[in-house]
Amino acid sequence: MRSSLIQSSVIVILLAASLAGGQTAATKPAAQPAAKSTSSFPPPNLPSEATVDSFLQQTFGYQKDLTWKISGIKPAPVPGLAQVDVVLASGQGQQLSRFYVTPDGEHAVVGDIIPFGSKPFESAKKVLDMGVTGPTRGPKDATVTIVEFGDLQCPACKAAQPAIEGLVSAEPKARFVFQNFPLEMHNWAAKGAAYSGCVGRTSNDAFWKFVSKTYETQADITAENADEKLTALADGAGVKGSEVAACAAKPETKARVDASIALGKSVEVTGTPSLFVNGRKIGNVSQIPAEVLKTLVEFAGQPAK
Predict the structure, then answer these.
(1) Quick one: how many helices (H) and strands (E) in the chain?
(2) How far apart, in whole angstroms, are the C-alpha atoms of residue 99 and residue 139?
(3) Is the overall model pTM greater than 0.90, yes or no?
């Protein structure tokens, strides 16, 4: 009985919750990938901001410490639906919430729109195979590539590191790639991404040490002392911190970070950490049992049927 309950909960996580990252970006909604032609479908009836605000008031108004800001109302990737993005804020922090409104304007659908078809993860896999540029571990010719989009200031990313490191250690034949995805809601995350990118271009081995120590000392880093702390962490990782600091301040470094963010948005990353296993998106990594993560990697490496 206990085993079946665990399996059931894992299925729920993978189908419902795993597609959302541990910490979501309280910023502009992610850009949607190009959709198939929808010329045969009428444009969706977009709800007004006043209607959405009234809906939120009726739904969440009882929570006195909760506030919200409507960040987007636009056609959804699925024809006929309207997509509504709302930033919810409380004493515990902020998160981006997304729901969809049906064409009749009478119902809201909560959850993720996930890929469907005989090869549902192939599109994201191709985008990532062509676009990843971050530091790597594992064989370049691996049949399975694991891509993490992470934010060095993100508490959920820090909490997920033991699970991710355990997965990488358990699957040495898989290729692991780290892509920076600093959230705008974090005040030194972009700087952390710039520093880590410069460390990685100097030494691949030093990069992993730098990331590990940054997560370890995350609570000690602030927007005011970030340069000092990150420079010291770069020195401790075995590269010259002063050179890394100079590199981090260059416009081309920011451009690389922006490109990594754009890559993440192109595969529907809205929060961190977001993990992809051969294009299959997995969020809430720390909530998924290690044996299930390992099975997902091994399954992805099997020949397609």
Answers:
(1) 10, 11
(2) 40
(3) no
